[in-house]
Amino acid sequence: MRNECGAFGEAYAAAYLEQHRCKIEARNFHSRFGEIDVIASNTKYLIFLEVKTRAADAMVRPLEAVTLSKQRKIIKTVQYYLLRFPTQLQPRFDVMGIVCGADGRSVLHFTYLKNAFSADGFC
């Protein structure tokens, strides 16, 4: 059920971005530093989205799972991505926390944080 909820959450997040006029550039981009769940763009930003999903009865809320350690891994992965795929767009780090229904294929509620953290102080 956990993997099903996670995969569903990432698909939900990508669809959410598309509904908000973003183009999906990549999903599950891997480097030796980590993974970016969804990379999307709009006219101004290249959005690096971390998606965290949890069951309704989970002890930890989804957004609490984006720790400083996780942020560092994301930033290093983004730096690697930007070396491989240079852009004029401004990078932005967003986070979406999703609480899944019992079936693992529905959303009870979600929180979307634009510009949730920055690379300042990490580089």
From TrEMBL:
<dbReference type="InterPro" id="IPR011335">
    <property type="entry name" value="Restrct_endonuc-II-like"/>
</dbReference>
<dbReference type="Pfam" id="PF02021">
    <property type="entry name" value="UPF0102"/>
</dbReference>
<comment type="similarity">
    <text>Belongs to the UPF0102 family.</text>
</comment>
<dbReference type="GO" id="GO:0003676">
    <property type="term" value="F:nucleic acid binding"/>
</dbReference>
<dbReference type="InterPro" id="IPR003509">
    <property type="entry name" value="UPF0102_YraN-like"/>
</dbReference>
<dbReference type="InterPro" id="IPR011856">
    <property type="entry name" value="tRNA_endonuc-like_dom_sf"/>
</dbReference>
<protein>
    <recommendedName>
        <fullName>UPF0102 protein H6X83_06570</fullName>
    </recommendedName>
</protein>
